[in-house]
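Protocol step 4 of 6: structure prediction from sequence.
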Amino acid sequence: MKGSKLSLSKRKRKQKEKKNEAPPDTKKEHTSILDEQTNERTESPLKKICVSLQKEADSDGVASQFSCRDESNVNQDEVQRISNYASTDVSTPKKDIVEILSDDENEDSYDVDNSSIVDQIQTIGEDQVSHQDSPEVNEVNGNETETKTSFRLTYKTSAYVQNLAEISYDILNDARWRVSGERLFKWEYGDDLCALHSFSRLFIDEENSLDEYDLDYDEEIYARCMNLYARMFHRKGPWFKISDLFIRYYHRDFIRRKQYSQPTSTSPEETETQSSENEITFGSLQKALIDCMSDLRRLKEMGLIRSFKSEEECGRVVGSSDTKLLTEKEKLMILSKLGGKPPTSTTALQSSEDENYILKQMKSQKSITFMKRENNVLPIKVHLNQLLQRDLAGKMKELLSSSEKEKTSDQQVFAYVKQISKEIFSEEKEFLTCFRLKESPLRSLKRACRLYLNAGDGSGSMRSNGANAYILVSEFEGSFSQERRNERKLLKGICSLPEPPESNQWHKVDFHGLNMRMGLRIFEYSSNYTRIKFCKAGVCKNIEIFKDVKQFHAWEASVDTRSILDYLQEWNNLILYAERKKKRLTGSSEGPGFRDELSPCVSDEFDVLSSDGRKFFLQRFVGFVNHASIMDIEMAVEKNVQILQDTDNEDNNESRCRFLTDAERMIACVTIICAEILSHRFENASSSELNWIMKKPWLRHLHPESALAYMIWDGVDILEKRGQYSLAVKLLDLILLESPNNRNGNNDILCNVAKVLLSRRVRGKAFERLFVDKKHSLDKNKKKTVDEFIISLIPKFSKSSCIPFSFLRKQLKRVKKPYSYFQCWSNEMLHLGLKVETKVEGKGTKKASHWEPITDESIANAIQKDQHESGTRCSFISNEDNTEDTTRSLNVEELAIEEYSAGRLPLCKDDEVHYPIKGGWKGWHCEGVHVRILFRILLQERILSKKTKEQCSIFLNRFQSAPLDLHVGSSLYCSGDSVEENRSFYHNRKEEIESFLRQLENSSPQEISDILYVSICNRVKKATSSAINIIDPSLLRDFEQLRTLCLIAAGCGGILLAKMFRALTLDYRHYAAGLPDLLLVRAYTEETKTLVNLNEWIGEVFQDSPIVSQQLGVDDEMLGASLHEGQMNNVSMKRIEYQTNLSLDGGSVEKLTLKFKGENVVVQSLFVEVKSHSDTLSERQICWLSLLGKAGRVCKFVSSQKKKKSATKK
């Protein structure tokens, strides 16, 4: 931020210069400006919000939200509360302490400060903002750090506030998130925008003036309120006790502000003085408590938080074991106040966790007017408030220093808490001690966050992984608590099922903006994003992401469905795994399984097993689908569901067509509903709507059609497992659209749209499943027609390159035809130089002989395991005689590294790998991680960050890990005889990519190493000069293994790197995986041909052992996605944890020169795919080995018994 780069003295000097500037020519204008400034000082901050919202609505040409009454679904109560509160003062009539004491007859009288609370609030103004002139503080740990640039930590600059403020500001004001000039979120649509507008007002843009930091007292108070809201938003909740909020966000902040003012070094004489100043006094706690309660009152009157609506809600929340609002002891105290008796037996205590005894006791009582004297019980909210007030007073007493504890009694603290509560919440019927974020503004804020985060994550992440925003915005408090307890009891010690999607999971979301402001991550492409100011309707039509509001609402409905489907898939996989594990442990397959006792925790809103539930589910897509066609879709859905139910209800329990769990039945129903909606969309969509999808294929993650297609693809798996092949074929044909019926005259356009909805890799897998399912669904006599169908499609695949070449190779093997038979070559094969090498063998016969990579075979017998260890990987014993640990076993990859290091592989002595020296290889089992690292570093500034014509839609926010079009593979659109290249990553940057790759091919190993070194050092320099202490994991890893990366780059050479990078730019989604398991390197002197000790020359990760430990996981360094796109991620995974014990302050790293002890050094690299005796190469791996040429090969281990059998056969 620009303001953070100036010292305080400079800032004050600029402010003085501003004040001393010459006034305007006309005195009238000068006077009016002064009057406006005076009015702004006297007005409350909330009144300013109302005025600004009124002006903003008028400037947009729409009716103000405050003037809407009957025409819209605006919550007028909340708007009126904001308007009323804007004109009122913070202070309210206060009662004397004597009146408070008289309210409770059981309390003793004691002396307290009878001064007005209003006076105390006014006296803490200076103390509240005194920390503004403090030195720079890193918000990660709250420690005072060395001042790099002057940066003031205020409530407004809080990372939590600015995270939500930036999201709200962009969603409301950026032209991308408008349709025909109108906002996606409006009061007229029934959206409560209180939270969005409140945070948007606090956003600090880098282009804003320095005055944004200079807040007056009212604005600082307002920012402090929203800071509390932001903290509650990022926590689990949903209910919070006032004592918890006070301890976390007010007391600690007060003590931290006192620590800011302390000098960095003190003398022994000053230590005692400072320790006495830092003692926590009762007066300091009083000020903090006033701040806390005042902010809660403000948020409540703004309509952003609420307390309990009714006594029943209070009893349900307090008595539930899921909310954990009270301890068990406190629950028993509430129960006794209600006249209930606590459970005595052990069985009753255990069952009390399953049953809400407080709510049960409340419902067993009659109303107050019919109560007898002996059953006279006060309402629960009164008892709860008294209990929590005492809890707050007790925690305040514990915070006091030892000397203050002696001066202050428990009764004095409790009386003061009651006094503050009664005066600040004087308008309420009772004291308020429990709060939660109000649902309607919270829902709108979550929807905005979900749109913002998913837009930046891109098409590489279109499933829930537990940390992204593919989750529901609505939550059902206390739902399925009993079912979840049953799950934990039954599956204890086996596995844990995922949390229901309706439960509050937003505290697990990985907010990129928050991580950046905390210094946990660097986003290299933040400078590529530019906010687009609002423009008139029609001018920014090409900039807007959604074609209309209906499309946006359909996308939201598809994201909700996606989260439900992800939950059902994981729940089903885990419940079946639990049954298999139980049978394996008990050794018996008899008895009821878990699937008979448990069901998925899905609310009635998504209950697709009932006819009414399916109809309600379809209503979510009204607008996206014609309302008149809903009845037709419902009939089609019911027809297909009835077919599934008929096969599922067969008397034969062993029938393969029976679904095993309710989750599988729900997945099948959701898949059918999505298919019918998508089919109707294809039939009725206009050409302009279809062209809107094709125009920007990198935005497929924001198209509801693409989300529906992915859900259909995921649901096909269950149908195949349960033998529903005919239905699976129908669904696959729908999402592939290679041979559709002529629908509305848009046949060619539909086929091209289908190439956008799914990635090239998923599309290739879908075609593969289509061919298999067709064979299963046909009779034996008609199965040959499948091969004919494949043969007819191969020329189309070659012409359009709509599927990866590896899938095309597999289909050529299936039909047993050489590629030359079709006389149509794939553009991908020609561009990458992939080898096919088909030839004719024998007389009068055509036999395909496909290219196979070089294979090194070796004998290795795996260690035999117990029968209970099925499913684990094979282990081997090391062949080295000098191993220190003889008990350690090796996996097959470690064994291969050992064999190549010792020179025992390859077996042929004349092999090029042994030239000019034998053995000496060291390496990693990394599966291409280092190649992806080099791709990211070398292409970041030169290619990935280059601006294109579609910059405004390729970068949708500042926190993207890659350009959105990186996951759009290169293919061709075919329309009749014409062919047009799609707008892929390679197509958008073709000239820059080819220019850089030519430069790379002509570079020497030393030059490549220097380019890499300079790139990393520039990034480190930029990070260390930042105002925030950066601890970005990827940058730290690059810095720690800088010389190692330079060695790998030099060993690969420019030609090989150019080949690999060209493949990644053509289709990053496909070629980012499938690389060989091992990356081996070695170095030798050019003259004497002796091996170089890498530990001595390079250092870092190299050791004397031939095996270098893996530094990164398989999914690391995958830009903008996970490698396992087709597999379900763990929905209930924990939030991403970043390392915080690393630093860039370790000094500079010496530049790598290809010389060792005065001799020139030659570096070699080798990529090896390792296979055991039962493994086979995939077609993608074969393509990678073909691309690597001599630098890639296969290492295959076979057992001695199989070796003897094969020798006997020969």
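Step 5 (inspection) to follow. The chain has 48 helices and 15 strands.
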